[in-house]
Write a structure and sequence with these properties.
Blueprint lengths: L3 E9 L8 E4 L2 H4 L5 E8 L12 H11 L9 E4 L5 E5 L4 E8 L13 H4 L17 E8 L4 E8 L5 H15 L28 E7 L18 E7 L2 H6 L2 H14 L2 H13 L8 H4 L4 E5 L17 E4 L7 E6 L7 E5 L3 H14 L1 E5 L2 E5 L1
Parallel strand pairs: 6-7, 9-11, 11-13
Antiparallel strand pairs: 1-6, 2-5, 3-8, 3-12, 4-5, 7-8, 9-10, 13-14, 15-16
Helix pairs in contact: 2-4
């Protein structure tokens, strides 16, 4: 476990007092499950002697400012009259932690989501009930080499990946003295179904499909701040995958994507409203022979520049489920990527063999950088 000393722990609240209100949560929000997703950024010192590298004062002040337009992030959960979760916009804030570590950036080498790396993302205490914990907890850790990490634990029912990166982009812009560029669209009732539907309603590949784009009609605002990502599932018989060409697997995925049109997605929303306890994901979904792939290739993950340079890496900040994978662009914009994947040891050996056979791989120190 990485050793660090906590120097400060404070709840950062919005810079302005806002009217207290409740935000209705869609079935897409609620099916994410009770989990704070760990994510971590690493930064090398930029060599600028005129500015204090990752000044906590700058970070806290800009965070307080960005929480004004993104005010649901500073709230807490509560239950409405029917027992359904909603966001109580009470302005209680997000947890901000400052820590120092004797470790070096080099100690994390390939940024594998190990327990050591996970420890840099704050742990969440759920024991006090749903109204007791922040939606976002973050820790800025200063390493002895001058590098810095920003570790986050963020409530997945409040934001999905596009919404999280939207928040990060606007916060980092404000840290550099810029105004907000794309205000968040906070009305989640666009995913409220107009009706209820009847309750009646093999290897599996799960992957997210973003409903913000052209699939839903009318198209949700591009700055919609909530969960707009649906989980798609492609199925195939193992023997078919083994005996048929690669295009067969690709065609199964393509067929699933074609099916995810407006009618299908609206039907999914209706179903989730009628079945509120439907579980979106979890460790049991992705174990062999199933799999999940999440691509962040189109996310602005390296735009979180707080004024001291862009991150050198961004990825999952802790252990991930077996059978779950992330595809992440590298920071040098050459088309190369990181693949973060969790498999059993024997499965990993087979996967690496097949992966290298299907890709052109260039070694990068003790990493492998692939062009697909």
């Amino acid at each position: 476990m990485t050793k660090f000393t906590v120097k400060e722990k404070i709840m950062v609240k919005p810079a302005e007092k806002l009217p207290r209100q409740s935000v209705w949560m869609s079935a897409l929000d609620l099916m994410a499950g009770n989990v704070h997703s760990p994510v971590i950024y690493f930064y090398r010192p930029n060599g600028d002697q005129d500015s204090k590298f990752f000044d906590p004062k700058v970070l806290k002040e800009s965070l307080s400012k960005v929480l004004v337009p993104f005010y649901p992030m500073a709230g807490r959960f509560k239950l409405d009259h029917s027992g359904r979760h909603e966001i109580d916009c009470n302005g209680e804030g997000v947890l901000f932690i400052v820590a120092k570590s004797s470790s070096l950036l080099e100690d994390f080498r390939d940024f594998a989501p190990t327990p050591e790396l996970r420890s840099l993302c704050p742990a969440v205490d759920y024991s006090g009930g749903i109204s007791s914990y922040p939606f976002m907890l973050l820790q800025v850790t200063y390493f002895s080499c001058g590098g810095v990490s920003l570790g986050f634990s963020t409530e997945h029912r409040v934001v999905d990946a596009p919404a999280f990166f939207h928040f990060m982009t606007e916060w980092s812009n404000m840290a550099r003295g810029l105004d907000i560029t794309i205000p968040p669209f906070l009305d989640r009732t666009i995913f409220r179904p107009p009706r209820e539907v009847p309750n009646n309603m093999e290897t599996r590949l799960y992957f997210p499909v973003n409903g913000r784009y052209s699939r839903l009609k009318p198209r949700p605002p591009s700055n919609y701040f909530g969960t707009g990502v649906f989980t798609a599932k492609s199925t195939a018989v193992v023997s078919d995958l083994q005996s048929k060409p690669l295009w067969f697997a690709s065609s199964r995925i393509h067929e699933t994507l074609i099916r995810m049109d407006d009618d299908y997605l609206r039907s999914a929303i209706d179903y989730l409203e009628a079945h509120p306890n439907t579980e979106r994901s979890g460790a049991h979904c992705y174990k062999s022979p199933n799999f999940k792939v999440t691509s962040w290739m189109k996310m602005p993950i390296y735009e979180a520049d707080f004024g001291w340079g862009k991150p050198i890496y961004m990825g999952p900040g802790g252990n991930i489920y077996e059978g779950k994978a992330y595809i992440i662009p590298s920071d040098n914009e050459d088309g190369s990527l990181f693949l973060v994947i969790a498999l059993q040891q024997e499965q990993m050996k087979v996967f690496k063999k097949l992966f290298y056979e299907c890709t052109e791989v260039k070694p990068l120190n003790n990493l492998s950088r692939a062009s697909l």
